[in-house]
Amino acid sequence: MIFQKQSKARLPKFLMTFAALLAFTFAAGSAQAQAKSKAAAKKQTHTVAIRNFKFAPAVLTVNIGDSVIWKNADIAPHTATGKGFDSGTIAAGASWRFTAKKKGTYSYICSFHPTMKGRLIVK
Ligand SMILES: [Cu+2]
Asked: Does the predicted TM-score (pTM) go above 0.90?
């Protein structure tokens, strides 16, 4: 009888500890998930299509840490050449990725066809 009484008293304590541990695990897990989704939301990848000797969009605004991919859909090679970045030749059908690391407004051209103009704004 005494033994039974003791085990009854112990059970709620054990349950509470277990519940607290469970709650802590869930809280930690959701905080981690939140941090992950925040980081994912921060770093985006944008695409600039190069088509018919034009950059589209011609003006693109991104956040620091974002990536920009220039995709050459033309049959001619192009470049995205600005102050602080230069793709070099982007062959027909090829693409070039750039990660924006510094704030600023970057005007760029295609060095083969200087009438092709674009602007990358990094906030
Ligand atoms: Cu070009």
From this structure: no
